[in-house]
Write a structure and sequence with these properties.
By secondary structure, this protein is mainly α. It has 6 helices and no strands.
Length: 154
């Protein structure tokens, strides 16, 4: 498989979009967590929403935090599908990408649905947070793209 110059430019553009969204989402999460934990500053190094977020109570901050998960998960999923589809133009790669993100979402939902009513949510929160951190990073897109690229070369 050979990428044309146009495809390379498009791929670079979409990867920059993924990296930019990763940066914004991560810094928002750090900013929210710093306020929840009672810190006067955060490690993110930016305070774009500090004034607004600082007016929210714990419950509202938690809702904003999970609301961001609800917004960013489909965005990252769609970006991954878009990148894979436009790079390879193979439905099975696009479907595999969708299944990959769907399985992770299902795991997140199942773990939360079991742990929360049983009172173990705090015990699984670290796992959920790490799994979401993985999804909201460029790693899944890079891994899938490299795997599909190597398959298409055979």
């Amino acid at each position: 498989m050979t990428l044309s110059t146009k495809q390379k430019i498009q791929l670079a553009f979409w990867l920059i979009v993924v990296l930019s969204l990763t940066y914004i989402r991560e810094n928002l999460a750090i900013e929210i967590n710093a306020i929840i934990d009672g810190y006067d500053y955060n490690r993110a190094g930016f305070y774009w929403f500090q004034r607004w977020l600082g007016t929210l109570d714990f419950r509202q901050l938690t809702m904003v935090k999970w609301g961001l998960v609800g917004v960013f998960y489909p965005v990252f999923t769609l970006l991954a599908i878009l990148i894979i589809h436009h790079s390879f133009h193979q439905k099975n790669y696009t479907h595999t990408t969708l299944y990959f993100y769907s399985i992770i979402l299902l795991v997140l939902i199942l773990v939360t649905a079991v742990a929360y009513p049983l009172g173990y949510f705090d015990a699984v929160y670290f796992f959920l947070r790490k799994l979401l951190g993985f999804v909201f990073s460029p790693l899944p897109v890079f891994m899938l793209w490299l795997a599909f690229y190597s398959f298409s070369r055979d």
